[in-house]
């Protein structure tokens, strides 16, 4: 049975930029990656936190960062792997990380390879393959279990991973996950056209893409973190990254058969799920949150009436404590 705490009221003030636990942006910078074999949990977090690591598959490379609290004995702490939204950056979890790091070591996967030049194959890979590649990260680190979280497309990928890797994933946190097929926005439909898409994405200013994030993802665009917008702008300023985003847009499933095998299995999902939903959602279908709430057997729904698609970015000091409390709970058995 779904657990259904009361939704937060729109009268509750949103947290503004400069939240109490916002971590330094330098922790989320994607530096030239080191092979995963160089990650050593015996080294102090002050050293490993500032490195980017990478696993390499026959199809592509997958960069990631592994963040630990100062003084942390990484061999003893549980881990939380986080998947960002489409076209975003691992820094999208910056505001939440200060709340989550006391509870978990954080693995932040750059599944779009925005941080490296050579990691992305021509044409990209299918979303299902991206899920498999992301889950190679905990395997490469020798982890037997971990928790999983994702926002937007990363939330859909997290749900897919929990179904495909049930013995690895202990619990799941979702922020407005994109999982149901739906009509694509006009821009997405345009850029899926061969040649025209390459032309549009090559010429489109980074600022326009970032404005789309602010005005589509936030209930109040003024609550956006200027440092986060700056890193989005810098990332989208690289043509190669805009073309990688194009590859993902072209791989988005628009017909149910493409992901029906996942949706038909969701009632088998035994892991506890926390579903955070910004109820002013503008990018996904209006009923997506309620549909997912009915579909998942062990879901706790937390609706925020005054937030939108990127609630974890817009109000981390409200969302963070909710997620931290969920992670602290003891699992049965």
Task: Summarize the helices and strands and which ones pair or pack.
Elements: E1 34-35, H1 45-48, E2 53-56, E3 61-67, E4 79-83, H2 94-100, E5 105-109, H3 127-134, H4 136-140, E6 146-151, H5 153-164, E7 169-175, H6 186-191, H7 196-203, H8 206-217, H9 226-236, H10 239-251, H11 260-263, E8 273-278, H12 288-295, E9 299-304, H13 311-314, H14 316-328
Parallel strand pairs: 1-2, 4-5, 4-6, 6-7, 7-8, 8-9
Antiparallel strand pairs: 2-3, 3-5
Q: Your description of this structure?
A:
The longest helix is centred in the C-terminal third of the chain and has 13 residues, at 239-251. The protein has 14 helices and nine strands. It is α/β, with parallel strands linked by helices and 333 residues long. It has a nine-stranded mixed β-sheet with strand order 1-2-3-5-4-6-7-8-9, with helices on both faces. It is globular, with a radius of gyration of 18 Å.
Rg measurement, Å? 18 Å
Order of helices and strands: EHEEEHEHHEHEHHHHHHEHEHH
The low-confidence runs, each spanning 5 or more residues with pLDDT under 50, are 1-18
Distance between the termini: 19 Å
User: DSSP helix count?
Assistant: 14
Structural class of the secondary elements?
alpha/beta
Shape: globular
Strand percent estimate: 5-15%
Task: Offer a quick outline of the entry.
By secondary structure, this protein is of the alpha/beta class. The chain is built from 14 helices and 9 strands.
């Amino acid at each position: 049975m779904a657990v259904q705490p009361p939704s937060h009221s729109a009268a509750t003030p949103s947290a503004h930029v400069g939240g109490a636990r916002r971590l330094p942006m330098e922790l989320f910078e994607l530096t030239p990656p080191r092979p995963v074999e160089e990650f050593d949990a015996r080294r102090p977090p002050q050293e490993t936190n500032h490195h980017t690591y990478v696993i390499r598959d026959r199809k592509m490379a997958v960069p990631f960062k592994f963040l630990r609290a100062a003084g942390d004995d990484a061999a003893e702490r549980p881990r939380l792997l986080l998947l960002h939204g489409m076209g975003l950056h691992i820094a999208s979890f910056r505001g939440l990380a200060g709340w989550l790091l006391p509870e978990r070591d954080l693995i932040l996967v750059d599944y779009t390879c925005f941080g490296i030049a050579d990691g992305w194959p021509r044409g990209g890979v299918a979303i299902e393959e991206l899920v498999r590649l992301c889950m190679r990260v905990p395997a490469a680190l020798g982890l037997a279990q971990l928790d999983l979280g994702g926002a937007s497309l990363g939330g859909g990928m997290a749900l897919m991973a929990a179904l495909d890797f049930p013995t690895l994933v202990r619990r799941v946190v979702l922020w407005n996950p994109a999982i149901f097929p739906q009509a694509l926005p006009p821009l997405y439909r345009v850029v899926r056209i061969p040649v025209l898409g390459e032309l549009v994405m090559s010429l489109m200013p980074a600022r326009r893409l970032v404005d789309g994030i602010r005005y589509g993802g936030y209930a109040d665009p003024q609550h956006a973190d200027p440092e986060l917008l700056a890193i989005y702008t810098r990332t989208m300023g690289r043509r190669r990254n805009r073309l990688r985003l194009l590859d993902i847009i072209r791989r988005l499933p628009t017909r149910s058969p493409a992901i029906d095998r996942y949706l038909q299995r969701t009632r088998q999902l035994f892991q506890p799920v926390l579903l955070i939903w910004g109820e002013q959602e503008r990018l996904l279908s209006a009923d997506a949150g309620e549909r997912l709430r009915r579909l998942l057997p062990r879901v706790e729904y937390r609706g925020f009436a005054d937030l939108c698609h990127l609630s974890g970015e817009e109000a981390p000091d409200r969302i963070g404590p909710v997620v931290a409390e969920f992670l602290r709970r003891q699992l049965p058995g």
